[in-house]
Specification:
There is one protein chain. The protein has about 180 residues and is an all-alpha fold. The protein has one domain. It is built from seven helices and two strands; from the N terminus they run H-H-H-H-H-E-E-H-H. Helix 1 runs antiparallel to helix 2 and helix 2 runs parallel beside helix 5. The mean pLDDT is about 95. Bound molecules: zinc ion. Zinc ion binds next to helix 2 and helix 5. The site of zinc ion has 6 residues, from helix 2 and helix 5.
Length: about 180
């Protein structure tokens, strides 16, 4: 799949986490920088091995199922009190790597060892759907964080420069009054 889906999926998970928190009247956990790190995790296998063809992906070490396992020991650093607060960000960035491999597994396959000899998965999701999936992921990410912003503002959020955003806000405000 394409970079938009890879970047957005773990960010949406972070959004759900924060959505739940703000509904419990807790402040959001993830800052913009955290969300960027999480999105970076989602595109890391492609970033470390930029490729265009499926053949190139099939011989990419960062697309082998061992790549997330190699990254996992880095979690040990979060036992140090100084870094503990950043653990959820690391965790979701790591989940982003796993989701990336899963998405590539169902859209052409990934190499088991990174050598191109043993490929697992195939085109369950045809490339014609990749761009629409990118658009849906980006829109859904916007929706989740727009809703969070609305909840954090306790319903006072306004968007005077964007009429369709204002329409959605109006609708939410109406629903809450009922
Ligand atoms: Zn990839």
């Amino acid at each position: 799949m394409f970079v938009g889906t890879h970047a957005c999926l773990p960010v949406i998970l972070a959004g759900f986490w924060d959505w739940k928190r703000v509904r419990q009247e807790l402040p959001p956990r993830f800052s913009k920088v955290d969300l960027m790190v999480i999105a970076l995790g989602g595109i890391l296998p492609d970033l470390l091995n930029i490729h265009l063809s499926l053949e190139a992906r099939h011989s990419s070490a960062t697309h082998s199922i061992w790549f997330p396992l190699i990254l996992a020991p880095f979690a040990l650093i979060f036992f140090l009190p100084r870094f503990q607060k950043s653990f959820p960000t690391f965790l979701l960035a790591w989940v982003g790597v796993v989701l990336h491999l899963f998405c590539d597994l169902i859209s052409g396959g990934i190499p088991l060892w990174g050598s191109g000899t043993l490929i697992i998965g195939k085109y369950y999701v045809h490339p014609v759907y990749w761009l629409p999936l990118d658009c849906i992921s980006i829109l859904f990410t916007w929706f989740v964080f727009f809703r969070i912003k609305y909840l954090v503002s306790k319903g006072t959020l306004v968007s005077p420069t964007c009429s369709w955003e204002e329409k959605i806000l109006e609708d939410w405000r109406k629903r809450e009054k009922r």
